Amino acid sequence: MADRPFHVRPAAREDRSRLGEMAGRLVRLHYSFDPQRFLDLEDVEAGYGRWLMREATRERALVLVAERIDGALVGYLYGALEGVSWEDLRGPCGYLHDVWVEEDARHAGVATSLIEHACARLKERGAPRVVLMTASRNASAHALFRKLGFRDTMIEMTRELADAP
Ligand SMILES: CC(C)(COP(=O)(O)OP(=O)(O)OC[C@H]1O[C@@H](n2cnc3c(N)ncnc32)[C@H](O)[C@@H]1OP(=O)(O)O)[C@@H](O)C(=O)NCCC(=O)NCCS
Fold first, then answer.
1. pLDDT digit string (tens) for 108-158?
2. Whose CA is nearest to atom 44 of ligand 1?
């Protein structure tokens, strides 16, 4: 919207290191939720930034950034068009993989804008629906996604075997 202090645009080559920083924070947040289930990746920033920039050039993928009026990036979203998944008993869809908003930019509609842009782009490209996974301990993300019309469809469960008899 015109009165918003940020806008959403496709990621560009010069965003790589900031994308990597934000993606690194997303990785560490998930590790903090459950260190056994989620990967503890050291120095993930450079590799993640490179990966996101590669994805940004793929026709089926979508990497969006939220840029403040002063040029600072305050959030990003990574999604893609996915085909049929027999494992998930799911038809073709748009998939949202990552959404991150920097802490000092939260509660201002940045994630909402990123997600609404992504849903519009994925719909234009033929996706009949958008699916995502969210960590069960991530209550703020659940509230966000529900507010934006997502319904609960799957619950992932994990059992450790290392200490099992
Ligand atoms: C979850 C997250 C993306 C929300 O970003 P945001 O830009 O603050 O979200 P918005 O301002 O668009 O919020 C929209 C709505 O979501 C809900 N919401 C967002 N953050 C919330 C929180 N901490 N607690 C409860 N509800 C929340 C509210 O309903 C909010 O509407 P309101 O502002 O009218 O109350 C952000 O907190 C974040 O980056 N968290 C860490 C990464 C993450 O969890 N990513 C999602 C899973 S991959």
1. 999 999 999 999 999 999 999 999 999 999 999 999 999 999 999 999 999
2. 141
Atom of ligand 1 nearest to the CA of 132: 48
- Angle at which helix 44-56 crosses helix 16-33, to 10 degrees, equals 120
Per-residue pLDDT tens digits for 11-41: 999 999 999 999 999 999 999 999 999 998 8
Q: Which runs of E-coded beta strand occur in the chain?
A: 6-10, 61-68, 73-82, 93-101, 130-132
**Cα diameter, the chain:** 61
**What residues flank ligand 1, with Cβ below 6 Å?**
26, 29, 98-101, 106-112, 134, 138, 140-141, 143-144, 147
CA of 148 to the centre of ligand 1 (A): 10
Which atom of ligand 1 approaches the CA of 75 most closely? 39
pTM over 0.85: yes
Cα angle 37, 18, 129 (rounded to 5 degrees) comes to 60
* Residue of 60, 30, 38, 65 whose CA lies nearest to 49: 65
Q: Strand 93-101 vs strand 130-132: parallel, antiparallel, or unpaired?
A: parallel
Span from the CA of 8 to the centroid of ligand 1 (angstroms): 16
